[in-house]
Amino acid sequence: MISNPGDEEFRKEIGQWEKPSQAVLPLFHKCMEQKKYISDEDIQRVGRVTGLVPTEDYLAISEVVSIGTFYQHFVFHPTGKHVVRVCMATACLINGSARLLSSIARHLGIGLEETTSDGLFSLHQDQCIGHCADAPCFMINEDTYLSPLSEEIPALLESYATRSACQPLLPIGNPLRNEPVVFAGLASSTTAFMKEYRDRGGYRSLERAIRALTPEGILTEIEKSGLSGRGGGGFPAFKKFASVRLQPPPRYIICNADEGEPGTFKDRVIMERDPHLLIEGMLIAAYAMGAGSGYIYIRSEYPHAYRILDKAISEAMEKGYIGDRVLGTDFSFNLRLYQGAGAYICGEETALIESLEGKRGFPRNKPPHVFEKGLWQCATDVSNVETLANLPVILEKGGNWYGGLGDGRTPGTKLFCLSGNICRPGLFEIPFGKTLRDLIFGLGGGIPGNRRLKAVLPSGHVSQFLLPHQIDISLDYPSFKDAGAMLGSGSMIVLDDSNCMVNLAFWVSAFFHHESCGQCTPCRDGTEDVYEIMVKIVQGEGKKDYLDYLKLLGEYMVEASICGLGVTAPSIPLSSIVHFREEWEEHILGRRCALGVCPMERKMMLGFPPRRSRGFFDDIPGLHPAEP
């Protein structure tokens, strides 16, 4: 093997991880930090020092290249000194992100995926950067800008062009907007680091747990509480923890902080405002299930939260809460941060584990389940940020107290993310059992501009619509399931009557086409075909038969896709066709968009460069334009 003096720096990074292959993503991040892109030499070096590439042969490095190019935030060619990413997810889209993107593009004189001639700026779109209540928003490098005015853009960009080093700006964001029940720390607009957290009783639940309670006693309290997964699955937490405990060691716990579902930002607020609450919850869960190591897998769109968590973990290590013999007991636990790189699919637990092992984020087939064979094929619990952050309060006040909250069908409280066309967007903690009307027209202040409520999009992009006549639905998992919808992560995107539902379906189809990992044919080709049909419809070239094709495609994707992405990708287009069919027929038969949102003419669709592979429905007449 050929060595290189520059390899030593990379080898130091490798030494921080359990296995050399796990360092692939951190090494790529290091390259991006140093020069904003990953060179051919970097690729060879990463392959060499991790052992993935035993030779200098170009074909042998294809595995390293395939890992890096899987993640959209890794760039493999020279790029601008300052990277601008405009969020084009649903909440931002309906609040003007397309106009924002056009304004930035005009000022810079470039299009998407392009770099200015002076090498200062590159322009990209992003799928969601987790500031949905402050939409529209965008990032320059790691600085986040919320609800900017068009006239502010030139001066802002000029400030980056004229200074050599930009200091990170801390996003204000929205802390908790109502009176807290469990999450008292989220009511503050400042971060609670170690001193503030301990002053209000932080880490006392952990101390009691490891000194006065048995793991079985902790699991009993969690069972009494009725706590279920808050990431969208709603599975009982104690069952997950107990299942891992029954497996032989080593055991792992992973916090899923890859909060990529559009409209969802609760986990970001927890990590930015109360990071030690999450860390304490992870320690309690780890002790209960007998896990000796843990990871927080955090998305790269959250650089501010990453820095806060990194500091909080260092503080916890200094105080003896993390490491060997925690607080002088026999319990030892190591905790590490691991940063993703822009892949929505990595919110799926098995794809996350694959990524954490330094691979492409391809979902695994089940069984085996992760509690049997997860990280490194060992017993693993993967839990959401909000789920784990409930544990300190449950141990402090008791499982029966927590179980008494809610409506009986679903115990406890839930953090709801309210965004879209709403007077008072933000994060709200609500006991289960309140109604959607309470959230939108009570806490949320209703629809601005005296417009009419048209629909609500719950759980980001994975659920069907809820309509105005369903506004009194109870905010709990069983009620949403009975209504054919999903409560999921608790995001609620409100849509007024200014929204074209065909246009919304187009952008959602573009999102899934972009985010499909490509592993399984039903999802890979299905999302592409749905997207291309939608392009035709919004450009005024739709045909009535396309509605039947969309239904057929959706049914096949639901039946045959490996993971939830392919299963839920058709939900919004198909739900839109059912509930707003007259809008679709107007677009297809009348060749017009009554709201004036869709272009209804052939043009390059903003934000999504053309991409082709082979689709299921290549034989649809007139679907694909002739090759030049």
From TrEMBL:
SUPFAM superfamilies: Nqo1 FMN-binding domain-like (SSF142019), Nqo1 middle domain-like (SSF142984), Nqo1C-terminal domain-like (SSF140490), Thioredoxin-like (SSF52833). Residues 502-547 form the NADH-ubiquinone oxidoreductase 51kDa subunit iron-sulphur binding domain. Keywords: 4Fe-4S, Iron, Iron-sulfur, Metal-binding. It comes from the Bacteria. Gene3D superfamilies: 3.10.20.600, 6.10.250.1450, Glutaredoxin, NADH-quinone oxidoreductase subunit E, NADH-ubiquinone oxidoreductase 51kDa subunit, NADH-ubiquinone oxidoreductase 51kDa subunit, iron-sulphur binding domain. GO terms for molecular function: 4 iron, 4 sulfur cluster binding; FMN binding; metal ion binding; NADH dehydrogenase (ubiquinone) activity. InterPro entries: NADH-UbQ_OxRdtase_51kDa_CS (IPR001949), Nuo51_FMN-bd (IPR011538), Nuo51_FMN-bd_sf (IPR037225), NuoE_dom (IPR042128), NuoE_N (IPR041921), Nuop51_4Fe4S-bd (IPR019575), Nuop51_4Fe4S-bd_sf (IPR037207), Thioredoxin-like_sf (IPR036249). Belongs to the complex I 51 kDa subunit family. This is NADH dehydrogenase. It comes from Leptospirillum ferriphilum YSK. The lineage of its organism: Bacteria, Pseudomonadati, Nitrospirota, Nitrospiria, Nitrospirales.
